Task: structure prediction
Amino acid sequence: MVPVIVVVVLTPISIGVGAVMLGTFDDSEAADGNAAAPIGTELKPGDVGVPVIYAKLIRDAAADCDEKSLTAPVLAAQLKRASNFSARARSVALDESGGSGGSEDAGESLTDPRTDDEKAADEETGEESPPSAESPSDESPSAESPSDGELPDETLTERPVTRGIAQFSDADWAVDGIDGNKDGVKDILDPADAIPSLGRKMCTLLETAKEHPGYRGTPLELALAGWHAGWKTVEKYGGVPRATGADEETYQYVKAVMKSYPQMVVPAGGAVVSGGWTLPVQGPAGTPYHQRGSSWSTGLHTGVDFVVPTGTAVKAIGPGEVVTAGAGGDYGNQVVIRHEDGTYSQYAHLSQVKAVVGQSVLGGTLIGWSGATGNVTGPHLHFEVRTGPAFGSDISPIPYLRAKGLIS
Result:
């Protein structure tokens, strides 16, 4: 039960503002990208960005590398291009029987998301997961990727199967795969292993690239080429392969990642601070956290109130996924968002809800309008920070908002 008691305005809340500058891509013959790494590296969630469940893995993988040009947006762009963030992604089959093409126990992965029925169906039809995003439909197919989607028979025997969110081949996984989540298993299908493995491999390639300043391309471009085609290919061409020739596909891969990784960053705009975080509304603070009173079922106020009139736009405070959207009993119309750090934010007493369950949001995304629904005495926004999605898991919002740079 969260009624409002807002007679005295306690404190105004100040907002910090930051900006994110995006890099550019030099579309030259040598893929000579003079692209500066984005100043901000907060990953953009959603269909055009990064699934929230993978954001921390990607950031941690980048942070584990001392090479500063390996940023979270770069790894995110690689994963999106490789598999579109699908842990079940698979490149091509090596035979017509629908076999795994990998190790004998590949189908017995501890983290294979398929059910037993799905595995049986895949084995019968020879189908696996959705095709890799390695060759998006908006790009022209290379000589090695015929337009009809069928690879020549000789290519089927030469090109290794790649699997999982990072699209490792079994041979490369045997060398470069690591047990990222420390569960005792190096699982090619487990993003908690595959994403750190991609980061570790890219970091090694960057270190190698910096030892060859005379090669064509920046160290990051050289590392990307080495990831896509192997470092021997980079040595063969003295850098990134050119736009025409047998290894045109590698050139196109490097160009695509360099062009797309700035798009993985939360854009600047409005009152959103660097990192993609903002206050839910512009307005003075009302009833504070844990104010005591008989108006609440627990005897304590479980959030903070913002004194705003009905119809005020309410925004998500940061990147996340909507887990609740609709009627919430005494809370009235409410929205609950799960953020990538495992915390939840709740927005209650809304006059109308715009967000839907499963929606990916950024800081500043409109999720509804303030009101006076539920058990209240007047219009306002009740806001909570929680450790779980449900009532009773609240924590003080003040240190949380302060840590995000939203209040002083």
Observations:
- The CA atoms of residues 80 and 133 lie 7 Å apart.
- Residues 1-40, 93-114, 125-157 have pLDDT under 50 and may be disordered.
- The longest strand covers residues 344-353.
